[in-house]
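Hello Y.,

Per our agreement to keep a running log of every chain we model this quarter, I'm adding this entry. I've kept the format consistent with earlier entries: sequence first, then predicted structure.
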Amino acid sequence: MASYTITNVTTVCGACPTIFDFSAIETTKHGKTKVVPLYFRLWRGHFRVCRGDTDKILVSGPAPSGIDGVCDIAEAIGMARFAGLDIAREL
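Predicted structure for the entry above:
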C-alpha cells in the first residue's frame, strides 16, 4: 500500500459534513513518488478518505464516539491512520 504526506489542506466545509481537500505526495512500495489529490469527508458518524482524481476509497469507517459530523484536520488524520492509511502531515 502507498503512503501519503499531506503538503496542502483546504477546508471545503467545516460544518456537517466536514470536508477537507488535500494535496499529498504518494510514495509507492517501490519508492516512486507523485503528487495526488485526496479528500476527507465526515458525515453522520462515518468518514472516508478518497483519491480526488478517481474517487477510489482508500479507507473508511465509523468515527470515534462523540465525533458525528465536525472535526479538525488533526482528528481527520488520526481517523485515517487508525483505519490503516499510512498518512502524515508535512511539517
